[in-house]
Amino acid sequence: MTILIDRHSDQNDAGDEIVEKNQGNGKEEETELVLDAGFEAPHTNSFGRTFRDYDAESERRRGVEEFYRVNHIGQTVDFVRKMREEYEKLNRTEMSIWECCELLNEFIDESDPDLDEPQIEHLLQTAEAIRKDYPDEDWLHLTGLIHDLGKVLLHSSFGELPQWAVVGDTFPVGCAFDESIVHHKYFKENPDYDNPSYNSKYGIYTEGCGLDNVLMSWGHDDYMYLVAKETTLPSAGLFIIRYHSFYALHKSEAYKHLMNNEDRENMKWLKVFNKYDLYSKSKVRVNVEEVKPYYLSLINKYFPSKLKW
To answer: Quick one: which residues bind Fe cation 1 (predicted)?
Structure first.
């Protein structure tokens, strides 16, 4: 399959190169896939305001800012290492992907200024929007459905972690906090901020070391990656799951010096995914029972009946 990256889209700046790749089955085909597709981003979110506007005055904005204050203080190298060590054991429970989707009905993301609906709504909105524009990329539909399932960390069965340790934009720890990160000013209270081992451009990393070797702030992205990494989901899908909240990279191009060639290749798919993740949020409900059989078929294709969480 020839993947054409359209530079005319203001949401996609990955370049105008042509890439020969088929993520679904690894076989080259003669068809063309334009990464810009036909999706048109709305101008306002479900509250009638600009998307990801963290400065618009509202009660929700104040709550979001307080969320990031606590998040930026608490996400340290020591904290991230502790969380990874605890949750990579995957010894909490065994359940199916759809069972996890249903668990998320109980939660609303406090870091999101654009939506106050239960998470299952956002997952289906994202997946269905992708499915409409990329009908043949079933792995991408499934990635849309499952990308936020790591938010089950909020559930009592998974430790009932505070929201600041589960949701929100992610960023590397162990090196300088880039100024493009939302509410950057609160990092000044982070114990790592003045640590000379952690506050330089590279910190504990080296140029081109690859994002796999970078400690990201702990949350649902990294957790869901740990759950899904041994399945047959393509590498681009795993990359999307792990870095879809890394806005400093895929919106502001910070931390590019840490990427390797595989990261740059997968970034093209993340840029496709991002606009559906962000701009498909709305008050329009998806008929769950109508679309459920389709997504169950994808789950059966790429995942075992039960996963360790």
So the answer is: 122, 147-148, 244, 277
Taking the chain, what is the end-to-end CA distance rounded to the nearest angstrom? 34
Binding residues for substrate: 52, 109-111, 151, 168-169, 244-245
**Hey, which residues does 18 pair with through a beta bridge?**
4
Whether 22 has a pLDDT exceeding 50, the answer reads no
Query: Distance between CA 63 and CA 87 in Å, rounded?
Result: 28
| C-alpha to C-alpha distance for 224 and 115, rounded to whole angstroms | 21
Cross-strand pairs, 34: 4
Rounded Cα–Cα distance for residues 89 and 71 (Å): 24
- Can you say which residues are annotated as belonging to the binding site for Fe cation? 122, 147-148, 220, 244, 277
Q: Distance (Å, rounded) from C-alpha 165 to C-alpha 168?
A: 8
The answer to whether the CB of 80 falls within 8 A of the CB of 203 is no
- Please tell me the distance from the alpha carbon of residue 260 to that of residue 257, in angstroms, as a whole number: 8
pLDDT per position as a tens digit, 170-200:
999 999 999 999 999 999 999 999 999 999 9
Question: Mind listing the pLDDT tens digit for each residue in 109-164?
Answer: 566 555 556 677 889 999 999 999 999 999 999 999 999 999 999 999 999 999 99
The torsion of the CA quartet 35, 40, 46, 48, rounded to 10 degrees, works out to 130
What is the DSSP annotation of 164-186?
GGTSS---BSSSPPPTTSTTGGG
Which residues sit opposite 229 in a β-bridge? none
Measured distance CA(308)–CA(166) in Å, rounded: 19
Instruction: Choose among 124, 109, 113: nearest CA to 44.
Output: 113
Binding-site members are: 52, 109-111, 122, 147-148, 151, 168-169, 220, 244-245, 277
